[in-house]
């Protein structure tokens, strides 16, 4: 309900429950057979949370292997890009490493040439002929310029699926395909949203603001939010770049308000509570609007269940296709 109320359109975004798509667990298991423990132990969040949550028993594979489950969540849908926050970039990087290792171990998929021929036809007759000529120039004469042009031709073609694009790129150099394509990170203009204590926002740390949180609670939390530690007194100048409140201003505030914050903070012309006031107004305005929209969905639970059911089926269709390709590559197709 929170996601729908926040504006996700189920006609564009597939909203589903992970546990209703068992292919997630299967791909996670298969990937765990080829992933070195050392890769998981060096994930930054693994070490950070061990240090931050010392009162919890984290000595389990469930905790250690969680980044690999995230990798399975991503790779199961073979995306080209993954929209994440700055703190999740490391998870996408390990996902790329896992995909690269899988592709190295299991190589080409079955019927590679047949699928390449079909993908070439998808380019259109003129581009297909150009692709063939450029590939020949590169493979027979070693023309690096032809390779660059051919790659550009493939990557700029919007009609190709991610899998077909990867097949054609691999075919250029005479190699196989990436069974699991390596996804790229997609960051927003403000890739970091801090928690109330300056650390990353996490329910585990208890430093979050709920999407539908009561306005008085939001105001109370933001008023006590950590600021630049250099501003001990009201008359001390500060540096917005060292203040987590500034990160929220970059998300919510207009250019005019951000300029006011920069000038006022650095000159001690405004205090921290002054700085937070317009931010509080904007955040409360947003959470109140989300809460209002959420009420409509709460009053119509059958609509929500229907959206989730459709999303689960849509997700399973894609997940089944990926698992079929993975099993075939691993010679586990027992038909």
Word description of this protein:
This protein has a two-stranded parallel ribbon with strand order 1-2. It is globular and about 75 Å long. With 335 residues, it is mainly alpha-helical. The mean pLDDT is 89. 59% of the residues lie in helices and 2% in strands. The chain folds into 3 domains: 16-107 and 184-190 and 312-329, HUPs (Rossmann fold), CATH 3.40.50.620; 112-172, no CATH class; 203-298, Tyrosyl-Transfer RNA Synthetase (Orthogonal Bundle).
What's the helix and strand layout?
Elements: H1 2-6, H2 23-32, H3 37-41, H4 44-52, H5 61-64, H6 66-75, E1 81-83, H7 89-106, H8 112-122, H9 125-141, H10 144-155, H11 162-172, E2 184-186, H12 215-223, H13 244-252, H14 255-267, H15 272-298, H16 301-329
Parallel strand pairs: 1-2
Helix pairs in contact: 2-6, 2-16, 6-7, 8-11, 9-10, 10-11, 12-15, 13-15
